[in-house]
């Protein structure tokens, strides 16, 4: 599978955010209390760099885990990716947002994105086996 699979999975996992937040952008902006104009005026690209690095790290770890566990077909990789997002990462997002008093809509939007992105990363990795 190798580095190409990890990079492609990371790129597509990152791109999942564009689709997810493209579809739920209005709800997300309302939940975080920002307007479209504020977001468009913000020229800081650091969050996008962080998001790609996070996708790359997740892809690398999932590749290692799948390889060590002998998980090799696309549907199983998709299921395990979604499971990691749903049962490992999303609970921590909800935990932090709960203590921070963030709106429940934001919990669902951001945790849902994590599950979707992890599922995509898993699927892509599985397609390279």
What key phrases describe this protein's structure?
single chain, 129 residues, mainly alpha, 5 helices, globular
Walkthrough of the structure:
- With 129 residues, this protein is mainly alpha-helical.
- The protein has helices at 2-32, 36-41, 46-69, 74-100, 104-127.
- Helix 1 (2-32) crosses helix 3 (46-69), helix 1 packs antiparallel against helix 5 and helix 4 (74-100) runs antiparallel to helix 5.
- The model has no long low-confidence stretch (mean pLDDT 97).
Short summary of the structure?
The chain has helices at 2-32, 36-41, 46-69, 74-100, 104-127. By secondary structure, it is an all-alpha fold.
The share of residues in helices is over 70%
The largest pleated sheet is described as: none
Number of helices: 5
Q: Structural class of the secondary structure composition? A: mainly alpha
Low-confidence stretches: none
Note the run of SSEs as H and E.
HHHHH
Mean pLDDT rating: 97
Rounded to an integer in angstroms, the radius of gyration calculated over CA atoms is 15 Å
**Hey, roughly how much beta strand do the residues contain?**
under 5%
The global form is globular
How many strand segments?
A: 0
Number of domains: 1
List the helices and strands and how they pair.
Elements: H1 2-32, H2 36-41, H3 46-69, H4 74-100, H5 104-127
């Amino acid at each position: 599978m190798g580095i190409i699979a990890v990079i492609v999975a990371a790129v597509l996992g990152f791109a999942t955010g564009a689709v997810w937040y493209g579809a739920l952008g209005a709800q997300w902006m309302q939940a975080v209390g920002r307007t479209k104009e504020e977001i468009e005026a913000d020229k800081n690209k650091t969050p996008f760099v962080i998001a790609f690095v996070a996708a790359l790290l997740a892809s690398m770890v999932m590749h290692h885990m799948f390889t060590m566990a002998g998980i090799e077909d696309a549907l199983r990789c998709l299921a395990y990716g979604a499971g990691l997002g749903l049962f490992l990462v999303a609970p921590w997002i909800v935990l932090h947002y709960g203590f921070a008093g963030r709106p429940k809509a934001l919990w669902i939007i951001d945790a849902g994105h994590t599950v979707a992105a992890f599922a995509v990363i898993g699927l892509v990795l599985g397609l390279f086996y």
